[in-house]
Design brief:
Structural class: alpha+beta
Distance between the termini: 51 Å
Order of helices and strands: EEEEEEEEEHEHHEHHHHHHHEH
Strand order of the largest sheet: 7-4-9-2-12
Mean pLDDT: 83
Low-confidence stretches: 278-286, 308-315
Number of strands: 12
Length: 315
């Protein structure tokens, strides 16, 4: 059985979300704490979730629940997809329950009106255009767009309320997992051991291992290496420092172990990664992304937004 991986999502500083346009190649089977919304702008995409396979075409929307195991695979090489990921805490600010939203325009089981679909599309496209052009006050526009999107979910989409027991268990688990991730992210340069981590976080070794196993990260070492490689990639692309220095600065005790782990995570050596003008695919983590023309993406967003975006007029 393939390993189910945890994807760590870095949310924006401006709002509790991550919003991007991607040309998706394929991803391993993974999950994350955040909700995820896929909006196909061009081409087609296959998504596996809830033990079902869905084929998304241009204009289709699919929402993946918090902690829901899923994977993606391209059907057409030239696909472009808007990906919105946002924290469940946005909803918990209002409701003390967990929700499973059945937003899926590929299925006839939960049909939406054409007007509702257009409203979802316009809201997502508008948020992405604001993030791209960054007009004055765009931070508020992105936040309001997210809240409007969530209001549309409650207004137009069928949803299930998860049981309070499940919600409480999930909440406690997520809080513990977040504490583990936060500590490791802040101390990845150190040699971390289970005893030290458990004692620092005030939990038993057994509970620590149980949380890591449920998260699919496998071990403290794997999660530590994830943050080490992320840091190393940043240094490789944004500095002229030597490879040995980057290896040490990223927490590796030898250059050979750095090369071995970096190759395992990215499929290339540190030098190859640094010298590539722009990697065609990011393989650290679980996603596979390809290059695309931003002008093409903006043109498609404008079409779905259905009018000239205000900030474009000022360019």
């Amino acid at each position: 059985m393939p390993e189910i991986k945890l994807e760590s999502i870095d949310l924006l500083n401006e709002a509790p979300l991550k919003l991007q346009i991607q040309s998706l190649n394929a991803s391993s089977i993974h999950w994350h704490n955040e909700y995820e919304v896929l909006f196909v702008l061009q081409g087609s995409l296959s998504v596996t979730c809830k033990q079902n396979h869905f084929s998304l075409k241009p204009g289709d929307l699919l929402m993946i629940g918090s902690q829901e195991v899923h994977a993606t695979e391209y059907i057409e090489n030239d696909n472009l997809c808007l990906v919105l990921q946002f924290s469940p805490t946005v909803i918990s600010e209002v409701y003390h329950s967990s929700f499973d939203f059945l937003l899926n325009t590929t299925s006839g089981e939960t049909p939406l009106t054409k007007e509702a679909v257009k409203e979802f599309q316009k809201t997502l496209a508008g948020m992405c255009l604001s993030l791209y052009y960054k007009p004055d006050g765009y931070q508020f526009e992105i936040k309001s767009g997210l809240y409007h999107f969530i209001s549309l979910l409650f207004l137009h989409v069928q949803y299930h309320i998860l049981s309070q027991t499940d919600s409480q268990q999930d909440s406690g688990y997520l809080e513990d997992l977040d504490r583990i991730k936060t500590y490791i992210k802040g101390h990845f340069k150190e040699e971390l051991h289970a005893d030290l981590l458990a004692r620092t976080l005030g939990m038993s070794r057994a509970k620590l291992y149980q949380i890591l196993q449920l998260a699919g990260s496998g071990s403290i070492k794997k999660l530590t290496n994830y943050y080490r490689i992320s840091h190393a990639k940043h240094l490789l692309k944004n500095s002229d420092t030597t490879i040995p220095y980057i290896a040490s600065e990223s927490g590796f005790d030898s250059e050979s172990s750095f090369f071995r782990v970096f190759k395992a995570y990215t499929g290339m050596s540190p030098n190859e990664f640094r010298n590539a003008p722009s990697p065609k695919m990011e393989t650290t983590g679980v996603q596979g992304y390809k290059r695309y023309a931003s002008s093409e993406a903006i043109h498609l967003l404008e079409q779905f937004f259905n009018e000239t975006h205000p900030c474009q007029r000022n360019i």
